[in-house]
Amino acid sequence: MFDSVKSLFSKPSVSTELPSPLLVKFNDYYVTTKPTPQNAVDIFKGEWSSSFPEPFADLKAGGIPLFDDVRIHWLDSEIQGFEGKTVLELGPLEGAHSYLMERLGAKHVVSVEANTRAYLKCLIAKEVLGMARVKFLCGDFMEFLRDDDCPQVDICVASGVLYHMRNPAELIGLLAQRCTSQLFLWTHYYDAEAVTSHQWQSRFPSSRQAEYAGFKHTLYCQEYGEALQWGGFCGGTAEQSNWLSRGDIIRCLQHFGFGEQKISFDVYDHPNGPSFAIVAGRK
Q1: Which portions of the chain are predicted below pLDDT 70?
Q2: What is the pTM of this model?
Q3: Which residues have C-beta within 8 Å of that of residue 231, sequence separation ≥ 6?
Q4: Quick check: helix, strand or coil at residue 270?
Q5: Are 121 and 94 a contacting pair, CB within 8 Å?
């Protein structure tokens, strides 16, 4: 028995054998060519969604022109310009909208990203494009918004995030506490007819009634399914999210004080579900 107890405290033997080169290829983590922006982009090769703007349009990344997104240009026109304004951005993905808002004159952009791979892509984009007035933060923006230290800003930009929330009404409510002027949303929304016509019933297996801060609404459970397996997955922090109907999104904004609303980019037949953009301001 003494020997068995003694063995618990004995120094473990250390193997001097190197791991098989078939298992560990240390040089996979090194670049052996001269430094280029493409080397940095290729760290996440095959995972990019955005195509880079000039003078870096030749970089092999994604295919969507988010660095010159017409939705942000529209927002710029609706708020009488970004010039001199502070911005809180949620879910920057790859920093494309962050870059464009800086180019349009934003005084300072704080951008919060929970997906660690997306966050690192934002840092790559920041370095490649030389963003000077954008600060990327790695973490859950819901926790950031709940924190007393979260700053108040002129403009809140939440593009492509509302439909990834488990409690989307809470997100709008929290943004109302931080946004002094206008809130921009681009989002998908639940529509029963669209779900039926596209045979998406398996994506939306259930619904339930909910209430947040006095706002009563319906939540439609959405499951990501196979999308969770993609390395470039850019959804929420859980395997499911809850969608709101178009009407409930509009009423929720009104409930939290955003009574002035302008809608554009209203696309009912979007391949991922009906979507629209809305700029909501305080009366």
Answers
A1: 1-27, 225-238, 283
A2: 0.86
A3: 44, 46, 47, 117
A4: coil
A5: yes
